[in-house]
Design goal:
- This is Dockerin domain-containing protein.
- It comes from Candidatus Glassbacteria bacterium GWA2_58_10.
- Residues 1-26 form the signal peptide.
- InterPro entries: Dockerin_1_rpt, Dockerin_dom, Dockerin_dom_sf, EF_Hand_1_Ca_BS, FG-GAP, Integrin_alpha_N.
- The protein is mainly β.
- The chain has six helices and 76 strands.
- Strands 69, 71, 72, 74, 75 and 76 form a six-stranded mixed beta sheet that branches. Strands 2, 3, 4, 5 and 6 form a five-stranded antiparallel beta sheet that branches.
- The protein starts with 21 loop residues before the first helix and ends in a 5-residue tail after the last helix.
């Protein structure tokens, strides 16, 4: 089991990271979840100052009624960066009671399971980097109604207290361990006592501590205090009755609350009529009153339901956490003087599923995580504070100013790291190669693509299917450029392959790749501000031909943004254009090689007035219906958000929001991604300061996804409305004063959470967004310790492009659409769809629609992390490395001949078969092999009779049904022919192996009898090693009487 041998130390004053700091409390929370067994009785978190190799927490199914439908046991909770798991080493068909403490005194807690129907206990001793040591010992007591662990005799070893119906048995741990196993000896048996009346302070949990300060360990159980007077001598005193008191659920610890060196007992007291207040009372031992109310640790207006005691900040003093029914947690940091007079901090979680079981620092990030158990859905939830965002621009090597007019992301060198190209508006463009750790290096000059360009759009696409992304850079007045990726880190200028006549001063405003005719090669859509948009049809990766008019692109409307996107998910790319002098146009693609204008029924033009300058489009699935939705930013007019109806009646798109967001700042582009990890896409709108009367630098706008099906967008924003007021209290680090233009949300550092790259420029004026002044790049890294996210890695064995691939991931009761973008004009995101699962423990299914129409599906559960999907149109590669029998000519044998077949495929195997063909009859026998992955497999072929022959071949298929054959040509076979007159083991040639063959073999070995013939020597060499010896004799004896 995974354990932490070196726990991080936590300093109470650690700026911004302190467990009890107000900064940590204000952060939003992400969620990890896991299914757990039915019937969980309770759970606990292992203490910070005494952790466990067994896990971070434990879940217990006691099954007190002995139900046959429920297995009892302990499930240990662990976590990695993506998911939590609850694993169970043993299950039982009987009721149990459980306790935990450090049994082997190594500083790490262990677990003991006692049985309620028999006198025995199972010990679970955690070990670093090893499975736990598990063993059973009998107990010299009755069956355990309850069990406790504490150092009764103060010798530094933990002892046992076992309670049954009539007695409490105290067992002292022996000083010597035997093979790492603890043993115990009887100290004393005490009578089991019960409260004389129903006492709210009575609990069946053992609470150990030196309550009277005499340096001996006492204990409380069943409402009685057992004072330890001397070895084996205890006196029992009943706890006082407090009718208004309430026992705190699962209070199985006590603490020195007032610094007097003795532990106190806690209970809750309610006061007042009608509107009540609740006090957590610390009660100290008193010789007369047993426990006398001391001070109130905290007073609240909501009922106190849980109390947790631990040294959470690891300063050597126990702290107190008090949880109330309104989901507020009060944190009281312990001091040398206890917690008296310490003002509590408080934080609230809006989580409403399940009951809080404890707090822990699961990721060792110095932030408290909340563990909930929901018995309704049998789910465990860990609510972790999100780490916020940090500006890593300088550390990432991006400390540079540029007029960033366009940006495109791709892994151009296929090293698994995201790279990006930016049009800089300066002397040289930039190609930033991704490095490990989220760093970047500008290699544009060395790559050969740094030449100046005046365009505002660029896009990656592998136009010749060589497996490397090529780059198109649109020009305004300068020519367009097509750079071919040579696969060695350099590019060649292949612009002549475009064969595009720009016809004078026509300006290209956007570029988007996509396979519009589904021939397996990417075509290119270019927005034309001064004429009809261009559609370049790819001719087998060799050159392009412009066919915009032929495909139905006929109108001149001053297009600012043109995108290929499958809006109706019929497998054919459609076109959406944003135009200054025309409507937002929708052209639906189809199998006839034409686009059909469906603008009038699109719903994208609720008013004819939306025609002002500065429009960009972005696509995402806001409501989880599996269809792409649209957000349009307009620098000079209103933004609009459209939901795709999927044509369930009415227009294709439905307007859900339109507003100019107070119009004081320019809005160039947006990003759609789940920034707060709740499973719902959010909307980030970048703003510049050039527009209107206000020239102070604004913040961007961040609106969170919501249950209504789209982000909650304020329509009454003031001049200063920004991320600070809408998101900063939930996600730290997002409020920055900068002119931001082009936000790109990607997991650049591949740590499972989103980062944000801002490529920025300041437009010269509101009527000319084609030029601008330089502004700094910004690179903001998210700092989550955990990430309940899924990254889809798309691979193709045929090296065709994945642009246009659509991914549908089902989780949380909905189906969420994403696509690999061919470019949205100013911004092109990478090729790895990225999802946050929110509170879902896993995704239920995954469906991938490849550009040529193929569909692949993967059933759930699909857990957080990277999911690799490969499209594979080739069958497995088969290689016969060792022929059965060693050659085509063999000696007939009573056994089969074995060989080795090597199977290679990037996908899992579906099946593997050996087919035996009898040449005379033509009958074929099929032998199936158990093969699921690539590797070498033993294949067997039966022996032909002497002088006969047979044919054989192999067939295989991968998990996607792609088949292959060896030999490859249909009608060709491998041949196995047996020598005439010889059968292995049949020395006398009577076509069977019997005692006569044994006698003859003994004669040959003893050099007696007639000289052996060549056929006898061949038949007697049972192991085919070229000689006759004792091994052959043994093999022949084993065949006698077997029917050969």
């Amino acid at each position: 089991m995974k354990k932490y041998s070196n726990r991080s130390s936590v300093t109470l004053l650690a700026a911004g990271l302190c467990l009890f700091s107000s900064i940590a409390m204000a952060q939003s929370k992400g969620t990890l979840s896991s299914a757990v067994p039915d019937g969980i009785s309770y759970a606990w978190v292992f203490p910070q100052n005494s952790p466990s190799y067994l896990g971070e927490a434990a879940l217990v199914v006691e099954n007190p009624n002995g139900s046959k439908n429920i297995s009892s046991g302990v499930w240990f909770v662990e976590a990695d960066g993506y998911r939590i798991t609850a694993s169970n080493p043993e299950k039982y068909n009987e009721p149990i009671r459980v306790a935990h403490a450090d049994l082997d005194m190594d500083g790490w807690q262990d677990v003991l399971v006692a049985f309620r129907n028999r006198s025995a206990a199972r010990f679970f001793i955690g070990r670093e980097d090893l499975d736990p040591l598990i063993y059973e010992q009998p107990l010299p007591s009755g069956p355990a109604w309850n069990i406790g662990i504490g150092d009764i005799n103060s010798d530094g070893l933990n002892d046992l207290a076992v309670l049954d119906s009539s007695q409490i048995t105290i067992l002292l741990q022996d000083k010597e361990l035997s093979a790492g196993k603890a043993s115990f000896s009887l100290l004393v048996r005490l009578a089991t006592l019960y409260p004389t009346r129903a006492n709210p302070l009575a609990s069946d949990r053992f609470l150990f501590g030196d309550y009277n300060g005499d340096f001996r360990t006492d204990f409380i159980v069943n409402g009685w205090l057992f004072l330890n007077l001397a070895p084996g001598q205890f006196t029992a005193r009943e706890l006082p009755y407090r009718g208004d008191a309430q026992t705190i659920s699962r209070l199985d610890q006590v603490m020195d609350a007032d610094g007097d060196g003795k532990p106190e007992l806690f209970y809750v007291e309610s006061t007042g009529a009608g509107v009540k207040s609740y006090k957590l009372v610390s009660a100290d031992y008193n010789p007369t009153e047993i426990f006398k109310a001391g001070f109130n640790a905290i007073t609240t207006s909501s009922r106190i339901d849980r109390v947790f005691i631990d040294d959470f900040n690891k300063d050597g003093f126990p702290d107190l956490e008090v949880h109330t029914t309104d989901n507020t947690l009060y944190l009281i940091a312990g001091t040398k003087a206890g917690i008296r007079n310490v003002l509590p901090d408080s934080l609230n979680d809006t989580w409403s599923r399940g009951t809080l079981q404890g707090l822990l620092d699961l990721g060792q990030d110095k932030l408290l995580d909340w563990m909930y158990l929901d018995s309704v859905s049998d789910s465990l939830f860990i609510r972790y504070p999100q780490g916020g965002f940090l500006d890593r621009t300088v550390e990432a090597g991006l400390d540079r100013k540029m007029a960033g007019l366009a940006v495109a992301v791709a892994d151009y060198d296929n090293d698994g790291l995201q790279d990006f190209f930016a049009i800089t508006g300066g002397v040289a463009n930039a190609l930033y190669q991704g490095q490990s750790g989220g760093k970047f290096l500008d290699v544009a000059s060395a790559a050969g693509i740094s030449s100046y360009n005046d365009g505002i759009s660029c896009a990656w696409g592998d136009y010749d299917n060589d497996g490397f992304a090529d780059l198109f850079v649109a020009g305004i007045f300068l020519p367009d450029k097509l750079f071919h990726n040579n696969g060695d880190g350099t590019f060649s200028d292949s612009s002549k392959a475009l064969r595009l006549d720009r016809k004078g001063q026509q300006r290209a405003t956007s570029a988007c790749w996509g396979d519009v005719n589904r021939d397996g090669f990417l075509d290119l859509l270019i927005g034309n501000y001064d004429g009809v948009n261009w559609l370049l049809i790819n001719r087998s990766g060799r050159y392009f031909e412009e066919h915009g008019a032929d495909y139905g692109l006929a109108a001149k409307e001053y297009t600012e943004s043109s995108v290929l996107i499958d809006v109706n998910r019929d497998g054919w790319l459609d076109i959406v254009t944003l135009n200054k002098e025309g409507p937002t146009r929708l052209l639906l693609g189809g199998g006839d090689g034409k686009f059909t204008d469906r603008t009038s029924a699109s719903g994208l033009n609720p008013s004819t007035a939306y025609k002002l300058f500065g429009q960009t489009q972005n696509w995402g699935d806001f409501n989880g219906d599996g269809y792409p939705d649209l957000y349009i930013t307009r620098a000079e007019d209103v933004d609009m958000l459209f939901l795709n109806t999927g044509l369930k009646g009415g227009d294709r798109f439905e307007l859900k929001f339109s507003d100019n967001l107070n119009g004081k700042y320019g809005r160039i582009a947006s990003a759609i991604a789940d920034f707060n990890s709740d499973g719902l896409p959010d909307l980030l709108i970048a703003r510049t300061s050039v527009f209107g009367d206000f020239y102070n630098i604004p913040d961007d706008l961040l609106f969170f996804g919501s249950a209504q099906g789209w982000p909650v967008i304020s329509t009454s924003l003031s001049q200063t409305q920004s991320r600070t007021s809408s998101a900063e209290t939930f996600i730290s680090g997002l409020a920055m004063n900068l002119d931001s233009s082009l936000p790109v949300a990607e997991d650049f550092d591949q740590d499972g959470d989103l980062d944000i790259l801002y490529v920025n420029y300041l437009p010269d004026n509101s009527s000319d967004l084609f030029h601008g002044s330089a502004r700094p790049l910004r690179y903001i890294q998210q700092q989550n310790t955990f990430s309940n996210t899924v990254t889809i890695v798309l691979n193709r064995t045929d090296r065709k492009n994945v642009v246009g691939t659509q991914v549908l991931l089902a989780y949380g009761g909905k189906i969420w659409w994403q696509t690999v973008s061919g470019g949205y004009g100013r911004i092109q995101t990478g090729r790895r769809p990225f999802y946050s699962l929110g509170t879902a423990p896993y995704a239920d299914s995954l469906v991938v629609y490849w550009p040529e129409g193929d569909r692949q599906s993967m059933p759930g559960p699909i857990y957080a992390g990277q999911v690799v999907i490969t499209v594979d149109h080739a069958g497995p590669l088969l290689t016969l490395t060792d022929k059965p029998g060693g050659s085509d000519m063999v000696i007939a044998s009573p056994t089969t001949f074995s060989g080795t077949l090597k199977v290679s495929d990037p996908s899992p195997l579906g099946w593997l078969k050996t087919i035996i063909r009898h040449p005379v009859s033509g009958v074929e026998d099929t032998l199936s092999l158990d093969a699921t992955v690539s590797g070498s497999y033993q294949v067997k072929v039966p022996s032909p009779a002497p002088g006969d022959s047979l044919y054989y071949y192999f067939e295989a298929a991968d998990a996607y049904g792609n088949q292959s054959r060896l030999p490859a040509s249909k009608g060709s076979y491998f041949k196995l022919q047996a020598l005439p007159g010889v059968f292995l083991g049949d020395l006398n040639n009577d076509l069977r192996i019997n005692i006569l063959d044994l006698v003859r073999l003994l004669q040959i070995m003893g050099a007696s009898g007639p000289p052996p013939t060549q056929n006898e020597l061949k038949a007697g060499d049972m192991n085919r090693d070229g000689r006759i010896d004792q091994l052959d004799l043994s093999l022949l004896i084993s065949k006698i009487g077997t029917g050969y």
